[in-house]
Design a protein that fits this description.
A hairpin with a 2-residue loop joins β1 and β2. α5 packs antiparallel against α6. The strands form 2 sheets. A 3-stranded mixed beta sheet has the order 3-4-5. A two-stranded antiparallel sheet has the order 1-2. The chain folds into 2 domains: 157 residues, no CATH class; 54 residues, no CATH class. Helix content is 44%, strand content 6%. With 265 residues, the protein is mostly helical. The longest helix has 28 residues.
């Protein structure tokens, strides 16, 4: 196949735009983890707790219509998050961790209800095709600092806390994700809540099918495999929370990920 000069110039422009976008993302991620000069103090997550208790079923399905109908309460909670950026001066580590998990989940719900009805969170697209995803949309502003969902998950939760159980606490609004907890995370019970989320996820046969000799695991354990190996092997971590102890000789595979919206069918 022969390319014309016009074709070559067009391809060069696409490559340049792609490169600039990647550099911008890397630069922003670097900036987003800096300490923020905030005088805020720990906030209450009671409003979020009440919203979740009314709109998340026992099976973890989310009533997005219901949350949209009580948008005044929901946006009141988001306003609390937007005006109070965690800091190391006034917040404990557990208070910061609870804040950022709740923030990730609440902002995910925000982008869903503002684009609802949709079949999948991946249907929300802005920016450069095949480069930007919904998780790169910078719609979050906390005390003047802009974030996207990737910044919160990867630059803050994973990088700053090194707590692998956060993977079972943050919810990506999809069928195969760990379920959205029907209550807010709070500093006083954060360890207990994270442990329960891990156990519930591994016992959930819709997302992990586990026997002693065979384990069909969520792709979360493949995508973020290194996060689960910091204090032993990945299998050691899984067996700590799994209802069934998986043998070291077991056949391990990963289930296909279903990105359908996690609402009642």
């Amino acid at each position: 196949m022969c390319l014309t000069n016009q074709d070559i110039q067009h391809m060069k422009k696409i490559f340049i735009l792609f490169s600039i976008n990647i550099l911008f993302i890397l630069a922003f991620n670097s900036c987003s983890v800096r300490d923020v000069a905030s005088e805020s103090k720990p906030v209450s997550h009671e409003i979020w707790n009440d919203i979740l208790s009314r709109n998340v079923t026992d099976d973890g399905w989310v009533n997005y219509k219901g949350i949209k109908e009580e948008s005044d309460n929901f946006y009141t909670y988001l306003d609390i998050l937007n005006k109070n950026h965690p800091n190391h001066k006034n917040w404990t580590s557990d208070e910061r961790l609870a804040y950022w998990i709740n923030a990730y989940n609440a902002y995910t719900v925000q982008i869903i209800i503002e684009n609802y009805p949709i079949e999948s969170i991946k249907d929300i697209k802005k920016g450069i095709p095949f480069v930007n995803t919904v998780w790169d949309i910078k719609f979050i502003k906390i005390e003047g600092i802009e974030y996207d969902l990737n910044n919160i998950e990867h630059s803050i939760l994973r990088k700053k806390f090194e707590e692998p159980r956060i993977h079972f606490a943050v919810n990506c609004a999809s069928y195969s994700c760990p379920v959205l907890r029907g209550e807010a995370f709070v500093a006083e019970r954060i360890d207990e809540q994270l442990t329960e989320q891990a156990r519930l996820f591994l016992a959930d046969k819709r997302r992990n099918i586990v026997t002693e000799d065979k384990a069909q695991l969520s792709k979360i354990f493949s995508w973020f495999g290194g996060d689960f190996k910091k204090n032993g092997s990945k299998l050691d971590f899984i067996n700590k929370y799994s209802p069934v102890q998986i043998k070291k000789t077991a056949d391990i595979s990963y289930l296909d990920y279903n990105w359908t919206l996690n609402e009642p069918q």
